[in-house]
C-alpha cells in the first residue's frame, strides 16, 4: 500500500444542484445526534453513555470565491484514515457517525450522505446466515469492508462494525462526488453530475470501482480504499430501511436508515425519512 500524502488538495467539481455542503456545519467528527440513540427494535433508548473514540485530524473546508462557482475546496492536509477504534462500536451507533465522512480510492473522493445499519440480531442482516465464505468478512473486526453482489449485478459496500465475531455493519447507500468526477462518470457510464449519479448503494460501489475482492479490506490503513474524517452534518433524517420486506416486522419498521437533511444526494424513497424525535 502507498504511504499517505503529506498534502493533497481536492477541488470539488461543481454541480447544478444544491450543494451537499449547504447543510453542513464544519465542526468535529461526531454528529450532533450523539446524545440520542435510535430505535433498535420498537423502543428508543434515552440517555446513553457517551462513547469516546480516537479521531484523526479533520480536513479543513473553506469556501473560496470563484468566478464560476462558490463551491468549497477541501484540503486533506495531514489527514489519515479514521482509526480502527472508531468503527468498533454498535452498528446503530456507527451509522450516523459515518455521515459526512469521506471515502477515498485513488483520485476518487466521495462524501457519505446516506447509510443503513444492520445489527447482529437483525433478521434483515447477512449475519443471520452465520459465517459462510460470502459473509465471513462481516464477522471480522470493525473497520473492514464487506463487499457483496446484490442480484449478481450490484456491488454493495458495507463498513463492518463492532468487535470480531459480532456480524454487523453499515451499508453505504448514497454519496456525493467530491473529486474525480470524470472517473466516476466513466465507471458509471453516465455523463452527468446530478444526484442520480451516486444515489443508490450499487452506484457507490461502481463509482469506486469495487468488486467482491475488496471484501475484508481494512478501511483504516492509508492507501487503496480508505475512510477519512469529515464534517458533521448539522441535521440528519431517519427512516426505515429499504428493500427488507422479508424481515421480521420490528426490523422492517426500525428507523435504522440515516441521511443528511437537506442533501440532494439521497436515494429513493425520500418520503419515508424524517427528523429524529
UniProtKB/TrEMBL annotation:
Which InterPro entries has this protein been placed in?
Formyl_transferase-like_C_sf, MPG, MPG_sf
Question: What Enzyme Commission number does this protein have?
Answer: 3.2.2.21
* Reactions catalysed: Hydrolysis of alkylated DNA, releasing 3-methyladenine, 3-methylguanine, 7-methylguanine and 7-methyladenine
Which CDD domains did the record assign? Answer: AAG
**EC primary class:** hydrolase
Alphabetically list the UniProt keywords: DNA damage, DNA repair, Hydrolase
MF (Gene Ontology): alkylbase DNA N-glycosylase activity; DNA binding
Tell me a GO biological process for this protein: base-excision repair
> Sorted alphabetically, which Pfam families does this protein's record hold?
Pur_DNA_glyco
Would you indicate the residue range of the signal peptide?
Answer: none
Biased region (Polar residues) positions are: 1-33
Where are the annotated segments for Disordered?
1-74
The function of this protein is:
Hydrolysis of the deoxyribose N-glycosidic bond to excise 3-methyladenine, and 7-methylguanine from the damaged DNA polymer formed by alkylation lesions.
Q: Describe the family membership recorded for this protein in Swiss-Prot or TrEMBL.
A: Belongs to the DNA glycosylase MPG family.
Q: What is this protein called?
A: DNA-3-methyladenine glycosylase II
Q: Which organism is it from?
A: Trifolium subterraneum
Amino acid at each position: 500500500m502507498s504511504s499517505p500524502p503529506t498534502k493533497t488538495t481536492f477541488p470539488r467539481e461543481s454541480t447544478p444542484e444544491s450543494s451537499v455542503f449547504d447543510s453542513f456545519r464544519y465542526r468535529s467528527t461526531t454528529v450532533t445526534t450523539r446524545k440520542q440513540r435510535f430505535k433498535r427494535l420498537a423502543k428508543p433508548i434515552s440517555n446513553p453513555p457517551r462513547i469516546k473514540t480516537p479521531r484523526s485530524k479533520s480536513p479543513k473546508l473553506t469556501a473560496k470565491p470563484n468566478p464560476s462557482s462558490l463551491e468549497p475546496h477541501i484540503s486533506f492536509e495531514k489527514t489519515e484514515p479514521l482509526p480502527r477504534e472508531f468503527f468498533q462500536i454498535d452498528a446503530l451507533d456507527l451509522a450516523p457517525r459515518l455521515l459526512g465522512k469521506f471515502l477515498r480510492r485513488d483520485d476518487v473522493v466521495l462524501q457519505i450522505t446516506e447509510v443503513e445499519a444492520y445489527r447482529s440480531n437483525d433478521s434483515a442482516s447477512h449475519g443471520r446466515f452465520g459465517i459462510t465464505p460470502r459473509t465471513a468478512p462481516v464477522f471480522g473486526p470493525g473497520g473492514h469492508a464487506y463487499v457483496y453482489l446484490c442480484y449478481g449485478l450490484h456491488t454493495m459496500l458495507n463498513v463492518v462494525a463492532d468487535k470480531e465475531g459480532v456480524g454487523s455493519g453499515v451499508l453505504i447507500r448514497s454519496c456525493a462526488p467530491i473529486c474525480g468526477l470524470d472517473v466516476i462518470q466513466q465507471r458509471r457510464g453516465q455523463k452527468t453530475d446530478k444526484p442520480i449519479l451516486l444515489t443508490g448503494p450499487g452506484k457507490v460501489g461502481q463509482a469506486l470501482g469495487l468488486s467482491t475482492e475488496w471484501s475484508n479490506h481494512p478501511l483504516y490503513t492509508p492507501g487503496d480504499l480508505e475512510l477519512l474524517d469529515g464534517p458533521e452534518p448539522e441535521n440528519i433524517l431517519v427512516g426505515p430501511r429499504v428493500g427488507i420486506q422479508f424481515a421480521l416486522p420490528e426490523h422492517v419498521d426500525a428507523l435504522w436508515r440515516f441521511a443528511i437533511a437537506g442533501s440532494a444526494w439521497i436515494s429513493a424513497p425520500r418520503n419515508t425519512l424524517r427528523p429524529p424525535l
